[in-house]
Structure formats: structure tokens, C-alpha cells
Design brief:
heterodimer; A: two-stranded antiparallel sheet; 51% strand; B: 72 residues; two-stranded antiparallel ribbon; 44% helix
């Protein structure tokens, strides 16, 4: 009989190079994200900050030039209604002769340019790696045996007799038929299959805490400036 | 309307949802809490326009990088 052993599933899966199958796309995504972060940082420093280079020896005492960045500020306008009382004595409340009017006062305030750029929208936001491997093994055996036996025979006879004016004829025949049949069928089947599925999901993290802190510090320091 | 940035209100510190491109067109955004309206001053408009154009270029560059990463 043929070898009925099926392949070992565990052996099939243990040989998979999982590091490269899953790690390679993740590495590519991480490298892509790092590259995008560098580009983004470069954009922020070049566009939203002024680079100030201090000459060697000035201030720090060291021999190397120090570089610092100061945020580029933009001017914003703020309009809000202000209640203005005219006529009558001050602090007299709703006494007669008081006119209360709402004046729209516009002031200016400065805001770092960085705060109005939607920088958190860049980067790889989703990585999905789906790896699926299916191993199938099957064995099938068919046996068919047929025995057929057939026997046939045939005989005939004829006799004639006569006594004076009388005569008689006898005719006869005989046949024999025998059939024997035997069928034997065997069907044997064995199979196994295994599926290995890996799903890796990597998502984009929110804006880095450090950048967020810088933006918050800038935005919280907004002070309205009264226009004379 | 979709807002892409938030600016804290200088009066009450409530976050005012705004859009940087709309700020450039001169639209003012009102604080949902105190009704103060903020807008971009005309003298800062060129600076902001330059930054937004640069950012759009950066966004295109990053999209190309994203596509390259997904093809790998």
C-alpha cells in the first residue's frame, strides 16, 4: 500500500520566515514615517521659525556657534462688543440720563505662525499587513475487483419408431446457463488542512506631546494688545 | 464646514475652531463662548499665504512618500 502519512502542519509553519514577512512592511512604514517626520520638522523650522545664529564666544563662552530658533509671529485682530456708558454720573447704575451703547472694539494680538498650520495631518496613518498561508494534504486509494464466471451448455435429441402403419417421432432439447458475478470496491481518503493568518495593524499616533506642548505654550501666551 | 485648526480665544481661552485657508480670505471666526471674533490682520496675510503654500507642497511630498511606502 502507498504511504498514507500526511505532511506535518507544524513543520510547514515553523519554517516560515515571519521576521521578513511581517517585519519588512512594518519597517518600510516606520522608515517612511521617520522620513516624513524629518521633512515635517524641516518645514516647521524653515517656515515657522526664524533661525538665530550666535557668533562663537558671544554669551556661551564656547568656541562653537550656537543656533536658536524664535517663532515667527503673525498679527491677528480681535473684535468684541464693549459696553459704553455715556452721560450722567459714573457708577450711578441705571439712573436717568445714562445711555448704554455697545461699541465694537478691535484689538490686535500676536500668534505664532506655527499654531495655524494643521501639522498633525501628515504621516502614515494606517498600516495593515495580512498574511495568509494554507497547507492542504490529502491521500486517496481506490481498489476495484470484479470476478465474472459464465457457463453455458446445450443438448438435443431425436428418436423415431415405427410399428406397421404407426410411426412416432420424439424430439427433445435441453440447455443450461450459469452466471456468477462478484464486485469488490474500496475507497479510502484522508486529508488535513491548516490555515495561518496574521493581521498586523499599525495606526498613526496623535501629534507628539512635545510639539503639542510647544504649541500650547505659544497659544496660551496670547495677550491682547490695546490699540491706542 | 470643516475646521482644521483651533485657536484659543484671547478673552476667555475657549478654543475657537477655525480654518487657516478661510482666515486668509478675510473671514473672521467667533468664539462660541464670548462671541469675540478673531481674524487675520491684512499685514500678516502674505506671510501666512506663503506658509500655507509651503505646507501644501509638503503635503503633496508626504502623499508621494505614503504611496511609495504602501507599494513596498
Amino acid at each position: 500500500m502507498a504511504d498514507r502519512d500526511l505532511v506535518s502542519m507544524a513543520q510547514q509553519f515553523s519554517g516560515l520566515p515571519m521576521d521578513s514577512l511581517i517585519g519588512a512592511p512594518l519597517n518600510a512604514a516606520a522608515k517612511g514615517n521617520a522620513s516624513m517626520a524629518l521633512t515635517q520638522t524641516s518645514f516647521l523650522l524653515d517656515t515657522c521659525f526664524n533661525k538665530v545664529t550666535a557668533s562663537p564666544g558671544s554669551g556661551t563662552g564656547s568656541g562653537t556657534a550656537s543656533v536658536s530658533y524664535s517663532p515667527i509671529m503673525i498679527e491677528m485682530s480681535l473684535s468684541r462688543p464693549v459696553i459704553v456708558q455715556s452721560g450722567g454720573a459714573q457708577g450711578s447704575g441705571s439712573g436717568s440720563g445714562n445711555n448704554v451703547t455697545f461699541n465694537n472694539v478691535t484689538t490686535q494680538f500676536n500668534l505664532p505662525l506655527l499654531t495655524i498650520i494643521p501639522i498633525n495631518s501628515l504621516g502614515v496613518d494606517n498600516v495593515d499587513i495580512t498574511f495568509e498561508m494554507e497547507v492542504k494534504s490529502s491521500f486517496s486509494e481506490d481498489t476495484n475487483k470484479t470476478i465474472s464466471n459464465s457457463t453455458a451448455g446445450q443438448a438435443s435429441f431425436e428418436a423415431k419408431m415405427g410399428w406397421g402403419p404407426f410411426s412416432a417421432t420424439i424430439k427433445g432439447s435441453a440447455s443450461y446457463d450459469h452466471k456468477d458475478s462478484e464486485t469488490h470496491s474500496t475507497h479510502y481518503q484522508k486529508s488535513n488542512s491548516a490555515k495561518y493568518t496574521v493581521n498586523v495593524h499599525a495606526g498613526q499616533l496623535p501629534i507628539p506631546k512635545g510639539v503639542n506642548t510647544i504649541i500650547e505654550a505659544f497659544t496660551n501666551a496670547i495677550q491682547p494688545i490695546e490699540v491706542s | 464646514m470643516q475646521f482644521n485648526i483651533q485657536i484659543p480665544c484671547p478673552v476667555c481661552q475657549t478654543q475657537i475652531p477655525a480654518d487657516s485657508n478661510l482666515l486668509l480670505t478675510g473671514i473672521q471666526f467667533s468664539c462660541p463662548s464670548c462671541s469675540a471674533a478673531i481674524g487675520l490682520s491684512a499685514k500678516s496675510a502674505p506671510l501666512v499665504e506663503h506658509a500655507i503654500n509651503e505646507f501644501d507642497e509638503l503635503r503633496k511630498e508626504v502623499s508621494a512618500m505614503k504611496s511609495a511606502t504602501q507599494e513596498d
